[in-house]
Amino acid sequence: MEIEFYWNTNGCAEFRADERLRYFGMWLTDDIQSVHELCLDLLADLHDIAFGRKETESWEGNAWAAELSAEGVDLGCLWNEALRTHYPLPEARRVVEQYWRLLTDDPDRDRAFAEWEKDNGRPHPVIGR
Predict the structure, then answer these.
(1) pLDDT tens sequence across 84-99
(2) C-alpha 97, offset from chain centre
(3) Residue 30 has what DSSP assignment?
């Protein structure tokens, strides 16, 4: 199975995942939530790191902290130090792109893209916009 994202009956993003990707799913649904701009920022950071435009980036949300680098994503829970793991960069990009596809089922998507591109002064690097 790896990971699958879906909307629950209350309209909140949820996931089903194998044990290895469970923390990644928790990070996306707990901290990125359904905020288009945050997901677009994360996608851009991962893309920029993969293509050498950035070396690293740090993220901290309500429950998770992440360090992004060419090696991948080091993820840790802010409330439980035992919940730490690493995901290779290609896998992290694939999973975040998969999460973005869930969020694109929303008319707010186009506004978020236009705003991101205006704020950042460049086209968003997401493939298949």
Answers:
(1) 999 999 999 999 999 9
(2) 7
(3) I
